[in-house]
Amino acid sequence: MAEEIKALSSQLAQDPDSLVFLRLGEALRQKGQLDAAHRVALTGLERHPHLADAHDLYARILADKHDYERAFDEWDMTLRIAPTHVGALKGLAFLYFKVGDVEQAAAHLEAAQRVAPDDPGVAQALALARGGAQDVERAAAVAGGGGGTAHSAEPIAPDEPLPAAAQPLEEARVFAGLQGAQEGLLLLDVSGRVLGGALRDSGGQDVTDAVAAYLAGVSQEAARTVKLLGLGEWTGLAAEGKSGHVHLTPPSSDALLLVVRDRAVPMGRLAVIAQRAAAAAHRWLETHA
Amino acid sequence: MSAKPPAPEYAKALDMITRVRGVRGAMLVSADDGIVVAEQLMEGIKGAALAALAASLTTRLRRAMEAAGVGASLFWHLQAAQGALLVVPSANGILVVAVAEPDVNVGLVRLELLRGAEVAT
Q1: Chain A contact for B101, CB < 8 A?
Q2: Does residue B99 belong to the interface with chain A, where contact is any CB pair within 8 Å?
Q3: A210 chain-B contacts, CB cut-off 8 A
Q4: Mind listing the pLDDT tens digit for each residue in A89-114?
Q5: Contact call for residues A280 and A174 (beta carbons, < 8 A)
Q6: How close A92 gets to chain B, by Cα (Å)?
Q7: What is the Cα–Cα distance from A88 to A111, expressed in whole angstroms?
Q8: Which residues of A fall within a CB distance of 8 Å from B51?
Q9: For A178-214, how does the pLDDT look when each residue is reduced to its tens digit (9 = 90+)?
Q10: Stretch 1-40 of chain B: residues touching chain A, C-beta under 8 Å
């Protein structure tokens, strides 16, 4: 392994634009040299920002470092670039198992199995998931441990609390706005009535009701437009503004969720935040129905 | 693609957008009244109706965004299960619109829409 790392390092030094950083980063990760692997992956990503495998590699390293939130973002980005990337699907399944969301984990594993039906790790993890996954730690380890996209997925000891980053972030942080915090989140019904959250403009003025009223019309027009085009259900509406970005998502058939962030938050990142918030909103709606 | 014969500068703007893989068509729409200015759409897409809805949606979205304090939209992207609609409102009241497959490179389409808006202005 040491010789291989040396050889790969040499190759990369000779041709910094080559994709050998993927093999080098993975070799370093497998050897447990996570900081070095992290540097290699980041440098590679800077040169190849649209390469799905680069994001997947970075996610695996982050997962090994127990930085699950950022690992989630990277695997999510991988899927945006390559929607059938098996490594990312398995990685996200691993993370969902970690937080106990067996349903989402199974959904990602099923998607992975459609792409890689012969992957024994996927099949085994899926069997655990379908069986109810009483032992979610084992399921997480299996989901994360198969094939060439393996990341270290050591089971969490039963008494060990989940790392903070692996807690369900949506309720704890992203979705806190619906409980009254002013976090740029607004949940409303399709008639424009506020269900949760609040919005203030840059001057601190409460604009919740005005925005909610306008958004009801946006939702109706979005639905009409996709129907006209035969595009199926609309899943999101993202918009860049002069001073900020917004993302509108229907977490259920009769609700809308708006996420507002300033322009410093990239649209892709906002989409990830919105997806998480929408999932949390869905659960919140079920709980508070 | 079916098309009304567009003015040369409009045709150029539409060409740039429809060259992107996954784009099913593009059109220029008057933002004020939702009327088609120029179009290059695949068969089966109802240009006039789409133009009206795109203009209406842009107006409503602008109102919501201005109320939220983030300013008028510079680009918006409606995502759906089987495709997407992407729009850049230009400075002269023309909407540059693309209809795309769900797996289109959104970043690339956005760039071409912005370039198209410059050409069409």
Answers
A1: no
A2: yes
A3: 67
A4: 888 888 887 777 777 788 888 888 88
A5: yes
A6: 20
A7: 11
A8: none
A9: 443 446 888 888 888 888 888 888 778 888 888 988 8
A10: none
Is A229's CB within 8 Å of B57's CB? no
Instruction: Specify the pLDDT at position B10.
Output: 86
Closest residue to A235, CB basis, from B50, B53, B81: B81
Q: For residue A196, what are its two tokens?
A: 């949760």
DSSP annotation string for A4-61:
HHHHHHHHHHH-TTSTHHHHHHHHHHHTT-HHHHHHHHHHHHHH-TT-HHHHHHHHHH
Give the mean pLDDT of B18-44. Answer: 93
pLDDT of residue A154: 37
The encoded tokens of residue B71 equal 């300013």
Count of residues for chain B? Answer: 121
Arithmetic mean of pLDDT, B25-31:
95
Is there a contact between B73 and A240 if contact means CB atoms under 8 Å apart? yes
More confident residue, A163 or A266: A266
Q: How confident is the model at residue A288 (pLDDT cuts 50, 70, 90)?
A: low
Q: In whole angstroms, what is the distance from residue B85 CA to residue A237 CA?
A: 9
Q: What's the token pair of residue B4?
A: 């009304």
